[in-house]
Design goal:
Order of helices and strands of chain B: EEEEEEEEEEE
Structural class of chain B: mainly beta
Mean pLDDT of chain B: 96
Number of helices of chain A: 0
Mean pLDDT of chain A: 95
Radius of gyration of chain B: 13 Å
Order of helices and strands of chain A: EEEEEEEEEEE
Shape of chain A: globular
Low-confidence stretches of chain B: none
Oligomer: heterodimer
Largest sheet of chain B: 7 strands, mixed
Largest interface: A-B, 19 and 21 residues
Chain lengths: 108, 115
């Protein structure tokens, strides 16, 4: 199985900050990476797919980058609604799906 | 509009069985790889099972292999997950997910395994 190592596990930030979360895959997965936002009691919300494509309706302050093994989610100008937990996922169908451990973004 | 609606969750005793359903609308289930993903209380996301679009190949996580079975009812455009010999550690919210360029998730159904 491909392992997805996500960091940091917790991130304290202020409104207006630029925030970066990273995921490293244990082997190359091209660009089959998605990023999700999850709030308590809710299901995951797709933010980014294919490493850098913004899902419909997602604010432009969210962006994704990377290919191969190293991937990044960036939130520019952090807003109050963005305090949540974020997960990366590899979804290459040649492999079983795996997820990062999650990053909780909380208020500094 | 693409929609996935899970049902069938509930409280069951260890060793019991449940069958989860995922009703799909806005697309044809058999044209996509379909997945089940679960999330135990306070934990991260765990892939459980997948069914290839042609319906011929199913895969399972080691933790459920031999106990869970994924299938679909093409006439009802519904994905199924038969869960047998349930364990306390199977307690989780179970999500139905459509594969593709951008995975599409249902809202989830809670399965609680407890005596």
């Amino acid at each position: 199985d491909i392992q997805m190592t996500q960091s940091p596990s917790t991130l304290s930030a202020s409104v207006g900050d630029r925030v970066t979360i990273t995921c490293r895959a244990s082997q190359s997965i091209s660009d089959w990476v998605a990023w999700y936002q999850q709030k308590p009691g809710k299901g995951p919300k797709l933010l980014i797919y294919q490493a850098s494509s913004l899902n419909s309706g997602v604010p432009f302050r969210f962006s994704g980058s990377g290919s191969g093994t190293d991937f990044t989610l960036t939130i520019s100008n952090l807003q109050p609604d963005d305090f949540a937990t974020y997960y990366c996922q590899q979804y290459d169908t040649d492999f079983t799906w795996t997820f990062g451990q999650g990053t909780k973004v909380d208020l500094k | 509009e693409v929609q996935l609606v899970e049902s069938g969750g509930g409280l069951v005793q260890p060793g019991g069985s449940l069958r989860l359903s995922c009703a799909a609308s806005g697309f044809t289930l058999k044209n996509y790889w379909m997945f089940w993903v679960r999330q135990a209380p306070g934990k991260g996301l765990e892939w459980v099972s997948r069914l290839k679009s042609d319906g011929t190949t199913a895969s399972y996580a080691d933790s459920v292999r031999g106990r869970f079975s994924i299938s679909r009812d093409n006439a009802k455009n519904t994905l199924l997950l038969q869960m047998n010999t349930l364990r306390v550690e199977d307690t989780a919210v179970y999500y139905c997910v459509r594969g593709g360029l951008g995975p599409h998730w249902g809202q989830g159904t809670l399965v609680s395994v407890s005596s």
